[in-house]
Amino acid sequence: MKTIAALFALASGLGAAEPVDRVTSTPGLVAFWDFVKREPEGAHRFTAHVPAGAKTDYPLDAANYIKDYWGAGREATYADFPLLGRGPFGNAIRIVKETDENFRPFLFVPRSRLHDTPLDIKGAGKSVTVVVWAIRESGNHALAGIWHEGTDLKQSETATIAKVERGQRQYALFAGLNKQGSACGHVSENGASSFLNKYALHKCNSADLSPEVPADSPAGVIDKSWQCFAMTFDHEKDELTGWLNGVSGDRWLDQPKKDGLIKSAYNAYMQGHFARTPDKEPAEDAAFPRDQYYNPPEGEPLSVKVLREADGERVELREHRYTKIEVTLRDGKEVARDLVGLRLNPWWYPHDLYTPRDAQSGGPFTIGRVIHSSRSVGFTGWIGGVAIFNRALSSDELAGLAEIRSSIQKR
After folding, report:
1. Which of 37, 297, 339, 357 is the most exposed place for a label (fewest CB within 10 A)?
2. Pair 381, 135: CB distance under 8 Å
């Protein structure tokens, strides 16, 4: 492991100060780990750049969550995160493609050290931005955030679990999930599941996708492969947006009722619609929880296309900001509708971020992985910086932060 002095000297030689300043001078910064800044004494853990007057700089511990929750495998240490010695800010950590099924290491801030601090973004009127500079070798799972998925799912992987906990999700950035390689923002209003599915499903996916780049590629390839993943949740717009290299882009899912997971959101939309109609519909579920309906605003359509018309019946495709619906009219009156398109970027999210009742019911902030029941390897590759902001950054601000990824190519 490189010494602290060597890392600072290397970062200085690469001209990392200006990129760091660009991040730290962006309004709303809560914490920024560049994997150069460390504790001056003791364990020399990575610490975050934080605003003046902050009470903590969030030092990162290392852990293997399989050992913590299943009682299997070995302890994790900083030695399990190889260092690149360069990157957008002067250094990067590697999330290794682990072959031991009982070893899933991550870096984290325990809940006891973040609860009710500025990093604990939650509750009414709160927005958040997560930015991660990374090179994706493989996988589509977590990059960084407060996203303890829970270990209470009934599946084969939990048969031998020693520590069962309910989900404690708030916000996190993923490397794609259902759209592998995209910048995928994930938020939760209850810490647990959505739309009666076993998983949380409020998530967005950037239009662009990051490539897969072997983590042991030659230096010239690595230096040209940095990607800037980001997510924003804007509580004023009720929008969750994924951004890759400063670009969000539109992403739609056609025929959501046929998608393995998003069909739950489709059902939540239809149940909300059925509940507003005077007649009992054959597919209506009176027991469906009202707080899990998913009905984005649908005022005046952005566009209307007549699909077919005959014998007094007219079928229209109406596009709204977040939905595409097929509406059947007879004599000008709506008699049926179906959700045929759902917008994945931005995703409409009308809730507040989950507020744990106390530190014991809240999750840690993790980098590289999250605690989850399936125990999959997840994202692998290099992470060169993680920044959290307490507001939704603008497209111009995100484009500026994305420029940092290419600055290393010019050094």
Report:
1. 357
2. yes
